[in-house]
Design goal:
Layout lengths: L15 H32 L2 H28 L2 H23 L5 H27 L7 H30 L1 H20 L4 H4 L11 H14 L1 H17 L2 H12 L4 H11 L1 H17 L1 H21 L3 H29 L2 H17 L1 H15 L1 H19 L30
Helix pairs in contact: 1-5, 1-6, 2-4, 2-8, 2-15, 2-16, 3-4, 3-6, 4-15, 5-6, 5-11, 5-12, 5-14, 8-15, 9-15, 9-16, 9-17, 11-14, 12-13, 12-14, 13-14, 13-17, 16-17
């Protein structure tokens, strides 16, 4: 993006701290793309059961929700960058154990130990990562920064599954998981090279510490009292229930119903991820021109049609195209929602508000994944995808009857009693 003449600021890509953070997280995302395909394949290879895949997804989801309850408290209390580095190192060690143990033969039980812990660490990392963007760029550049990050992540999501499919087919999914483990080391090194604005800022009025549960509830109260955020939380909780197991169902559909191989699955997920790239690049101009409400509602409506279409599709190319549309719209809706929270939440509450949002948002996800995958094995993918797609469409319709519909391009005000967001470069208080 070109320099803005009004402020004379350099383009975002020339910001050294943001650029370093961007590169480090891109490398980490590339590794995550390997695990995104390799873990379900590892379970399917060892058990042949889509229900087992869904159960593992559900268990990891529960761990994420539990970690989310107190993750925001930790992020707001302690050094955010240091927390991110620690969680990277934890995941490096645990994911690194999988290929080593697998040398003795399939050990599915290990995944039920490693994945929940890594999911909890990942939740803490993601909460901190959301606050890190706020501490890296000016407020009016948050949507642009999120878009650039997500677009780059999506590019790695294109190449990652493609390479993971090749590696899994040639060497086994456990080797692809080893690549994921190595990526966390690269992320940790990159984080060591940056400093967040909050690291340098001196808070003149430190926030009084309370019990962890009370601090978490402060974030939940802010979330609930802000009308747009409240509506988003409720509707997205339903959406995640309907789609949390979508990847597992998709992999099952491609391999079981359409006769695809591990390489086919990698190709489908890799090419479909181009939709995420498109969504990340489109979100900032869409929000500027159409406003938050129409962009968010439209994205989720299209998601519904795409999910239903995936189940009805009978060829691999059509499944790939529809999945790309789905991922594009998920990207648009997700970046819109995340950017709005970052813009209107005071910095000293941002970790707890993000934590409260994700804990609530993902609370129904594990149950949804277990039910979705069980139903796919019992009744078939077409019926399950049709029901999930109609549900997603109803989520979008629900947005028309909430403050989301009236939300424009500019952030809404903070709820009474919490004060405005602090000036850029401060930690708030």
């Amino acid at each position: 993006m070109s320099t803005e003449p009004r402020t004379g600021r350099a383009p975002l890509w020339r910001d050294r701290s943001f650029g370093t953070y961007w590169i480090a997280q891109t490398l980490s995302a590339a590794g995550n793309a390997f695990a995104y395909l390799a873990v379900p394949l590892l379970v399917l290879e060892a058990t042949g059961s889509v229900a087992q895949m869904g159960l593992l997804t559900a268990v990891a989801g529960v761990a994420s929700v539990i970690a989310g309850v107190f993750g925001g408290v930790l992020v707001d209390r302690y050094d955010r960058r240091r927390l991110m580095i620690v969680t990277d190192l934890v995941r490096l060690v645990l994911f690194g154990l999988v290929p080593l143990v697998w040398l003795a033969g399939p050990q599915v039980w290990l995944l039920f130990v490693v994945l929940p812990i890594c999911a909890a660490a990942g939740m803490l990392f993601q909460v901190a990562a959301v606050t890190a963007v706020r501490n890296l760029v000016d407020t009016d550049r948050i949507t642009e920064a999120n878009g650039r990050l997500q677009a780059t992540f999506a590019v790695t999501a294109v190449l990652g599954p493609l390479l993971a499919g090749v590696v899994s087919a040639r060497f086994g999914p456990e080797v692809a998981i080893a690549v994921n483990a190595a990526s966390f080391a690269l992320s940790a090194v990159g984080l060591r090279l940056i400093r967040l604005r909050s690291d340098r800022a001196v808070d003149a009025a430190p926030v009084a510490r309370e019990r962890p549960l009370a601090e978490f509830l402060a974030g939940a109260r802010f979330l609930w009292r802000q009308p747009v955020l409240r509506a988003l939380t409720v509707l997205l909780s339903v959406f995640i229930f309907l789609t949390y197991g979508f990847t597992d169902v998709l992999i099952y559909h491609v391999t079981h119903d359409l006769g695809g191989t591990e390489g086919t699955v990698g190709t489908v997920l890799g090419l479909a991820a181009l939709g995420t790239v498109a969504g990340a690049l489109l979100v900032a101009p869409l929000r500027r021109r159409r406003g938050f409400g129409p962009t968010w509602i439209g994205a989720h409506a299209i998601c519904g049609f795409a999910v239903a279409g995936v189940g009805l599709a009978t060829t691999v190319p059509s499944v790939t195209a529809l999945t790309a549309v789905y991922l594009c719209c998920v990207s648009v809706g997700g970046i819109c929602s995340m950017s709005l929270r970052q813009e209107i939440t005071p910095d000293h509450l941002l970790g707890r508000v993000t934590s409260a949002f994700w804990s609530t948002h993902y609370a129904l996800g594990p149950a949804g994944a277990a039910i979705l995958t069980w139903a796919a094995g019992r009744y078939g993918v077409p019926a399950v995808a049709l029901v999930a797609g109609v549900g997603c469409l109803l989520v979008a319709v629900g947005g028309l009857f909430t403050p989301i519909r009236r939300a424009g391009a500019e952030p809404a005000s903070a709820p009474p009693g919490f004060g405005p967001a602090p000036a850029v470069g401060t930690t708030g208080g």
